[in-house]
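Researcher: Quick sanity check before group meeting.
Model: Go ahead. Protein one:
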Amino acid sequence: MRVSRWGWAFALVVVISLVASTVGLAGELPASPEPLEEVSLTPQALPAGVQKIPEGIRPGIYYLNYGSTVLDPAQYPVDGSVRFFQWSELEIGDGVYNWGLLDRFLDRMHNAGLGAGIFISTYDGKCCGDIRAMPDYAIDLGNTVIEAGDTIDYYAGGQNGDFDRGDRGWTTEGNAVINDENPYGGSGYSARLGGTPNTTDRVYHWNVRLPVEVPTAQLSFRWYMTTTETSGVHDQLSVEIRDGAGNLLGTVYTLDNTAITSTWSSPVTIDMRPYRGNTIQVHFKLVNDAANPTTFYIDEVGLEVSHLIPKYHSDGYKNAYKRFIRALGARYKDDPRVDLIAIGTGVWGENQPVENQYDSVIEASGLTGDVWVQFVQEITLEYAKAFSASPNPPYQPLKPLFLQYAPSYKSIQEKQQTTDYAASVGVGLSFNGLTDDANGTVRGQLASYPGAGKYEPIIKWNQTVPIAWESYDYMLCDRARALWAIYNGLDKHADFYRLEQSVVTDPAFEDILQWARQYMGKTRENTPSVWVALREHRTPWKPCWTSPETGPYPQLGNYSFWLYQRDDIPGGRTVPETNDSSVTGLGACGGSYATDFYGPNYPCYSNPYNPALGNPNTLPEAYVIRRTDQATGNPYMWFDVDDGYLRGGQSHVQITVKYVDLGTDTFNITYDSVTGPKETEVITKTNTGQLKEVVFDLEDARFDNQLKPAGWTGDGMDFRINSRGDGDEWIHFVDVVNLGTLPTPTPTPTPSVGDLHVRAFGDLNGDYLYNDGEPLLSGAVLTIIDSSGTFSETQTSDADGWARYLGLEPGSYTLREDQAPEGWQWIAPAMPVQIFAGQVMTYSFPHQEATPTPTPTATPSPTPTATPTPPQRYMYLPMMMRW
C-alpha cells in the first residue's frame, strides 16, 4: 500500500454565496450577501512552509473547564484546558468587552504550564442557559430572537429551587438553615428562617441573569409559618430583589406573623418583568423582634421565564455576532497563551440551531436547511478571516479553529456541506462524541447523503486541517470503552482530545491517556512509531449510556496509525473475536455499509464470543481482537508500513507485538530485509491467558513492499506474523518504530563466518525478555561450545553487559554460563544458539538476583523434590528465510 487508507478521491467545487465583511473592526457589515470566489472542496496539499498545526501550538489532551480549575500536568495526563465562554460573558454591552475574564483564565493556565482553549457559545438550549448566552444588547436590537412558545424555570434542576440538593446555589445568614425538618410534600428539604428572638435571618440564591425582552418572568414560592406571637405585627418576612453585587433593587413581597396558617401555602407568584436586563439575587429575609419568635419555611422556589431562541438568519443577529468575532480575533489571534478556539454556531456551540423539539418553531421563522448551512458557512468564514494573518484568501488561521459539526438540523448532508466549506478556508473539524465504536459513521459515495457519515469529514480532511474530538465520562464509562475510543480518535489522526475532567483524573485511564499523548498532532514524518489496533465493528454496538444498538454504515476493520493489516493477501485472512458475550456479530452484520469504501461482500463473523479471552474488565484489549485461521489455510497476518513513514534503504526497526497468550504453540515474523525475506527467531507461548508483548529487533529492515506470497501480483507487504502451523495467534496490537535509516551497504563478497553477541542482564520482571530499564551486567563468564565439542571460546561480559564472539563457523552451538555476575544467578544454565554466515546473532542471557545462603539450622532435611527445568529464552533476531 502506497498511501494512507483514508485517501478518498473527492472532487467537488461549489460556489457559495456568503456575507463577507469588507470593513474594519468597528465598521458595520453590509446587509446583503456578497458572492465569494469559487472554493475547492477537495483536500489540497498544504502550501510550502504551512503546517496544519501552527508553530507554537500545543496539541494533546485538554480537559473541559467550566471555571478556572487547574490540573497539574505533572500529576495528570493533560496538556491544556478548554473553558466554555458565553458570548454574553465576553461582550457585556454593544462593543464593551470583558476581556479580563478571559485573560484571567489564560494567565492561570499559562502559569500552570498548560495550554488553553476557548469555546464560544451563543445559545445554550432549554436545559443549560438558553438565550442568556446572547448579550442583552443583541436581544434588544429587535428581530434577533424568536419565542419558543414555552418557559424555562431558571431555578430548576441544579439551580436547586426546591432545596433538595441542600445548600447548593443558596447562601444562608444568621440562623437560617436548609434541612429536612419541614419540606413541602413531606420529603426533601426546605429553608428555615427564624425561631430565635431579636435576629435577622436571610437565605438568597446565587446570581441569575434575567434577559431583556422576555414576555414572561415570574417568581414563585411556597411558605409555611409557625409563631408564638399571636397579636400585633412583630416579625416580618420580606422577599427582596438585589443586583449581582447585593444592592437592593426592590422589595416585591412581605408577610408577617399575623398570617397564621397550619399548612403550606399555595404558590405565591410575583411579576419579575420590571427586573429584566439585570443580574439578580432573590433574597428571603426574616426579622424577628425581641419578643416571641416566628419561624418561616420556604420551598418550591421557581423563576419561570419565556424561552427565547436566536434568530440566527436575521441581519441584526449576524452583524452583532460577527463584530464580536472580529474583536475576539483582533485581540487573541497573536496571543501565545491561546492554543485553540472552538467556534460557536448553534445550540451549545454546535452545528444545530436548536434542540430537536424546537425545529418547527425556528423553521417557521424562515430558517430552512439551506439557510442554516449558509449561516454556518458565514460564521465559519468570519472566524477564519478574524484569526488569519490576512483577511484575504487563502485563509491560514494562526490558531486552530474548530467547527463543532457532530449534530445537524434538517439533513445529515449538512455535515458534508459545512465541513467541506470549513476545511476549504482553513478551519478544523471537531466531532463531539468520541466513543469506542458507532453506527452511521462511514456512508461512502454510493449511499444516500454521500460523504455525510459521522466520521467522514474527519477522514477526508485530517491531513489538511486540525482535528479534535470531545468526550465525557458517560461515553467512556469503563477501561475497555476508553481504550478503544482513544484508538478510534487516533485512527483519524486527532490533534486534540477535549475530555471531561473526571476522565483525565480517573486513575483507570491514566496509562491509556499518557500513551496517547505522544501521537497527538503528529505526522508521518515526526510520529514516534506507527501502529495498528486489530478490531472489527461490533453488532450490536453497546454504548455506555443507552441500550445496545444495531445500525448501518459503521466503520469496518482496524484502527490504524499508518500501519495497515491486510486481510486480502492470500493466506492472511484473519478472524475477529471478542470476550463480550453480548456481541452476536463482528463486521458487516448490521445492514448497509459503504461498499465503495470497503468493497463488496465484506464478511459478517457470527458467534464471535470466545470465553478463553477472559472478559472486558480483566482483558479490555480483547474486547475485540483478531486471530490467524490456519484451519482454513490462513496462518499469516500481513502488514504494510505507510510509505510516508518508511520505505526502502536499510533501517533499524523494532516491531512490538501484543498478543493474548493462548496455547503453547509458536510464532515468528517474516520481514522484508535488504537481502530479501528473512525470519526472526521463534516465540513459544505459555498459555497464561494474559496479554503479553514481544519486541523483534531488526537491524537490516528494508520495508520496500517486496514481501509477497507465491503467485501474488498485487501490492507487496513489509512483514507478516507467521503462526507456523502449530496453533493460531490472537493479536491485539502491532507497533513499528524506525530507530534510524542506515546507509545502504556496499556489496561485499559472500561471508563464510558469523558473529555472536550475548547480552547479560537482570530480568527484574521475570519475563525472560530484556526490557528498557533492566540492568546490564558485567562479569558474566560465558562459554560457547560447538556441536562436536571440539571448539569452545570463553568471554566475560563488559561494562555494558556484552560478550562478543567473532568469526564463528556456521552451525549449532551451546552457550553456557560458567560464572554469574556478583549478586546474580543464572535462570537457565545454558541455551542453544545458531550461527549463520554473514549475520550477527544477538541473544540475551537472563539473570535473577541471587538468594542469600541461609544460616544452617538443626532442622531435619526435607524430602527432595524435582527442580523444574527453567524455560529457555531468546532474543529474537533474524535468520535467512528460504523461499
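Researcher: Fine. The other one?
Model: Protein two, sequence then structure:
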Amino acid sequence: MNILIYDPATPIAYTDATLHQQALRGTESTIVRIAHALSRYHSISIAQHCRNIADNLISNGVRYISFATAHTLSPDIVILLRHPALIEMITAFFPQARYFLWMHNLPSRHLHTYANFMAKHRWQIIAVSHFHRKKIEMRLQGKWYQRLFRKQKEMVPVRVLYNPIADDLDFNGIPIDSNQMIFTSSSYKGLIPTLKLFAMVREQFPEYELLIISPNDLDKDIILPKQARSVGPLPPYRLIQHIRESFCVFYPQTERVETFGLVYAEANAVGTPVLAHDFGAAGEILSHPCQLINGYNVSTVIEKIREWREQRPIVKAKPEFRLSNVTQLWLRMFEQSHI
C-alpha cells in the first residue's frame, strides 16, 4: 500500500539522518522510526509543511516530500499528524484514501466539533497511550450541554499505538555518576518548577548536579540554580549516553502531562529510574510505580531520593514499547481497517 504521513506541525524538515545529527523532539523521532519500520512492508512518504519541492528526497526507502508534492499523490492511507482542523482538507485532497489522525498532543476542547465529519468519512484516531485515549474520547463527546445540540450517530474509533523505542536499547553496565541527575524534556515541560525543586533537594543533598539537555535552547531569562547546567540540544544517541550515566532522570514537574513520555520509556530501557510526578501517562509508561512521587510535596521528593541512595531501583523497558512489537500493531491496524 501507499501510505502518506502528513506533518503540518514539525518545526524543521527532518529525515532519519536527523536522528544522528541533531536534537529531535519525541514526536518527530517517533514518526521517523515508525515510517522506516513500515517501509519494509509498504511504500511510505512523509510530507512536511516546511519542506520545499527542491528538497524532496528518498532516504533509506522513505520519501521525504513537500506538501505540494503530496497533493499530487493518490495514497491508500493518509495519516494526519495532530491537527484535526485539517481533516476536511485532507478528505478533499485524497477522497479515496483511508484516514487516521495521529494525535500526540492533548486534544483540544473543540475536538467534538469534528466528530460527526470524522465518523461520516470513517476517520480513526491514534492515541499514544490509554491515558491519552481516555482524554480523546472525553473530548470527542464534549460537555453534556454540547451533546444536546449535536446528534452523533457513530463514534470515532480511537486506537492505542505506543511510541516505540529501539529493540536494542538496553542497560549496558556503564558506570553511573551517583551525583548526577538529568532533565531531558523541552523547557516548556515544567523546567522552571523542576529547577526550584532541585534547589530545595540540594539543601539536603548538596553534592547533586542537574544536567539539562533540552531539544530546544533555553530562554535567556531562565536562571539556573547552583550546580545545574545546560549543555544544549544533543542528538538522541548522545542524549541516551548521558541518561545511562545519570543516577536518575529528575522530572517531578507538575505543569505538563505527558501523553506518552518517551523520556520515561527510554530511561527505563537503559536502566535509569525516573523520578516523576504521578500524572498523565507516567504510571502507564514507567516500568515500576516506585518511580512515582507527589511533585507538589518536596518532602516526598527528598524521601524518594534518600531511599534510592540506599537502593537504586532496577528498572527496564516494557516489551510492548519495542519497535518490532509496535510495528506489528500498526500493520494489524491497517489490515483491520481494510476489512
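Researcher: One line on it for the slide.
Model: The mean pLDDT is 94.
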